[in-house]
Amino acid sequence: MTQSTENERQGAQQPAMHTPPVVSREAWEAAREQLLVKEKAQTRARDALAAERRRMPWMAVESAYAFEGPAGKVSLPELFDGRRQLIVYRAFFEPGVYGWPEHACRGCSMVADQVAHLAHLNARDTTLVFVSRAPQPDIARLKARMGWEMPWFTLTDRFDADFGVDEWHGTNVFYRDSNNGNRVFRTYFINNRGDEQMGGTWNYLDITPLGRQEVWEDSPEGYPQTPTYKWWNWHDNYGADDAAPDKKWVEVSDAGEAAFRDPAKGSGG
Q1: pLDDT in tens, 193-235
Q2: What pLDDT does 253 receive?
Q3: Which residue, 194, 20, 1, is CA-closest to 111?
Q4: I want to staple 188 with a disulfide (CB 3.0 to 4.6 A). Which of 38, 52, 127, 173 is the partner?
Q5: Is pLDDT above 50 for 266?
Q6: Same domain assignment for residues 181 and 253
Q7: Is 14 helix (H, G, I), strand (E, B) or coil?
Q8: Rounded to an integer, what distance in angstroms lies between the CA atom of residue 90 and that of residue 171?
């Protein structure tokens, strides 16, 4: 049976779809503007929630944890790879998980498939890693098969149990204070459907204690912030020599934002 025939057979068993009305361009634009008001309210509410998240109390991590990586054992502070912020996703890839040893958990694999290029996170002083109980050779094989490039470490102790991810997937966020003996603090945790939002650079940054680090954000006093859009770069063009915003890109982004916010065009931020 061809795919189209199968679809037709299944369609015959489905009730008729009650689709929305077909309207004129003017009526469609009016409906879109009406919905946009609610979408903008949701954006503002999301921003306010992220601002509240940046003010959550921190929890000091008092225990030492060890992980196995491609180059051997590493500590929790070493997972930061020299950066201030660390996002740790607990993926289920180990004996007993459905799909082992060829695949990781299907849900965790979908999360891995969504992860954006890590250079953008790294540019905001943030490291993302995955952790599982699978040995490193199996993790390397899985990453090669699936085309994943995020750092992926092996759990060797109680890290998963201590941070709520021994029975279910979840995302923990940590901050490293290099001025205070490399002390590590847990700043945030999200799991269940909250993980569905993860993968994109901005959503990841929104759950970190420093946020996107842009001037429009409502962050505590003294937090690092730079002009909106100006830090963006091609993922292969970040580096020490590119820390300052590119002059041409600043001009382009300024002009684009001005046009977007032009009241005459009915736009808004």
Answers
A1: 999 899 999 999 999 999 999 999 999 999 999 998 889 999 9
A2: 78
A3: 194
A4: 173
A5: no
A6: no
A7: coil
A8: 6
Alpha-carbon dihedral angle through residues 160, 195, 73, 163, given to the nearest 10 degrees: -30
The DSSP secondary structure of 207-244, one letter per residue, reads TSTTTT-BTTS---TT---B-TTTT---TTS-SGGG-S
% of the chain with per-residue pLDDT over 70:
90
For residue 21, the 8-state DSSP code is: P
Beta bridge partners of 104: none
3-class SS of residue 183? strand
Q: Structure pTM?
A: 0.88
Structure-token pair, residue 258 = 């001005």
- Give the integer Cα–Cα distance in Å for 213 and 235: 18
Calpha distance 140→149 (Å, rounded): 10
Pair 202, 249 in one domain: no
Say which residue the tokens 């094989």 belong to: 141
Question: Domain holding 152: CATH number?
Answer: 3.40.30.10
Mean local confidence (pLDDT), 123-143: 98
Domain that holds residue 254: 227-262
- Decide if 157 contacts 68 (C-beta within 8 A): no
User: What single-letter amino acid sits at 14?
Assistant: Q
Strands (E), 91-193: 126-132, 152-155, 170-177, 183-191
Using N-to-C axis directions, what is the helix angle for 106-114 and 136-146, rounded to 10°? 60
Whether the upstream peptide bond of residue 101 has omega within 30° of 0, thus cis, is: yes
